[in-house]
TrEMBL record:
This is Peptidase S1 domain-containing protein. PROSITE patterns: TRYPSIN_DOM. PANTHER family: GH08193P-RELATED, PTHR24260. Keywords: Disulfide bond.
Length: 426
């Protein structure tokens, strides 16, 4: 360090430089020094720790203003918005601002706003609220310069995090623990014990979406006894007797089967049902709901071929039932293309198809949800949306799928009933 440079190293500064001679130069002043750090969810995030201030000429050493030392001033500056009579901006990664006005005039709620400003909020499509579909919260900037009421928390959905060093490749192979955090195992009790029945998808911490065929019987009783069914979240090995530490197990308290399927099963129409759990799933990076594209932004049926994923414990390429969770890539095709692949099958209006061109195929043990990835630019993450539920076989390499969005209204009605019932029992 050159003589005299120390006068610039004040209490709010620190020095930095690399031994290889790399250094800041003229024009870099004011730039931020950023360091990477892993978050709780194992995301790599970048934090600003310093601002380029001065450089020691002839060396690679420079001083940086220490952000941490200035935190009280930063907080005070931000809070000055409130002191000046404004509510803070409504900015969030998980909440979407759909409307903002002051005395009937549209304003920008992403900036500080005056008391009396009103806004409509909802969880973004790539997050879950109490209801997994958009329900608006009307909020207002109060005289005490806070927004009220605020939304309940919006949970993550449809994320795949890199635990256990797995690579989330779309191939037909054995999966790793937690790679499909929305996929659950459904088990049924019979004379022989508790046996695997099918797969399902978490769409809410208390609700699982399944194919109706998994919970329906022939004969007068029709719907199975809910108490005979169990759901395991975080399941990797298929057998009920094998329990991992991170698994969560639940008994089913009720089964909701669509009335069309309950009335007439001959066409396999409305092959959709919801399981209500006796307790609430504790969501985390390992276990979380899949997202649902309620606004149909993906418009999958408008595209000729779309690649998706299906996971399950079905029959492997060796012709045996898999003991561990596996997945395969499938291609979505519309109703017209599907009908051409088999003239013997009549597709009901709620169906589209998937094909497996690599020969891996899907089987009964794979009955469950089919997800399609979409990169959400606003949060910078690949997010998986539940679009269909595997229904039945059309041909050797083609299966029909129940369209989730086709039953949007039914799902919402059932949700309202379920969650209102839960509130009444509290």
């Amino acid at each position: 360090m050159n003589a005299g440079f120390s006068q610039y190293v004040t209490d709010d500064k620190f020095c930095a430089g690399l031994e290889n001679g790399t250094s800041v130069e003229q024009g870099d002043s004011g730039g931020g020094l950023i360091i990477p750090k892993n978050s709780i969810n194992n995301d790599l995030r970048y934090y600003i720790v310093g601002i380029v201030s001065t450089k020691d000429l002839g060396t690679n050493i420079a001083t940086f203003t220490n952000i941490n030392k200035l935190r009280p001033w930063l907080n005070q500056t931000v809070l000055s918005f409130i002191e000046e009579g404004y509510c803070p901006p409504l900015i969030s990664n998980s909440v979407e601002l759909t409307q903002c006005n002051f005395n009937g005039t549209e304003v920008d709620c992403k900036k500080p706003t005056m008391p009396g400003t009103k806004a409509k909020l909802q969880c973004k499509n790539s997050f879950h609220g109490e209801f997994p579909y958009p329900l608006y919260t009307d909020t207002e900037c109060q005289k005490n310069l806070t927004w009220s009421p605020l939304m309940d928390s919006c949970l993550e959905c449809g994320r795949r995090y890199k635990f256990n060093n797995y690579e989330p490749l779309i191939t037909y192979k054995e999966r790793k623990v937690s790679e499909f955090p929305w996929h659950v195992g459904i088990y049924k009790k019979n004379e022989e014990g508790i046996k695997f029945a099918c797969g399902g998808t978490i769409i809410h911490p208390k609700v699982i979406l399944i194919a109706a065929v998994c919970a329906y019987l022939h004969g007068p009783e029709r719907t199975s006894n809910p108490k005979d069914f169990f759901v395991v979240a975080g399941k990797y090995e298929r057998k009920w007797t094998i329990k991992a530490n991170f698994e969560q197990r639940f008994q089913v308290s009720s089964i909701m089967v669509h009335r069309i399927y309950a009335t007439d099963r001959t066409k396999n129409e409305a092959d959709i049902a919801m399981l209500v759990l006796n307790d609430t799933i504790k969501t985390s990076s390992y276990i979380m709901p899949a997202c649902i594209d309620w606004s149909n932004k993906q418009k999958l049926l408008d595209k000729p071929y779309v690649a998706g994923l299906i996971a399950g414990w079905g029959i492997t390429e060796d012709g045996v039932i898999s003991n561990v969770l596996r997945s395969t890539e499938v291609l979505m095709i519309n109703r017209t293309r599907c009908s051409l692949r088999s003239l013997e099958i009549v597709l009901t209006p709620d169906k589209w198809c998937i094909i497996s061109e690599d020969g891996s195929g899907v089987s009964l043990g794979d009955v469950g949800g089919i997800v399609f990835p979409k990169f959400e630019e606003d949060i910078g993450k690949l997010t998986y949306y539940l679009s269909g539920i595997l229904s039945n076989s059309v041909s050797k390499d083609t299966n029909s799928v129940t369209d989730v969005l086709y039953y949007e209204n039914w799902i919402k009605q059932i949700f309202m009933y379920i969650l209102n019932s839960v509130k009444r029992t509290k």
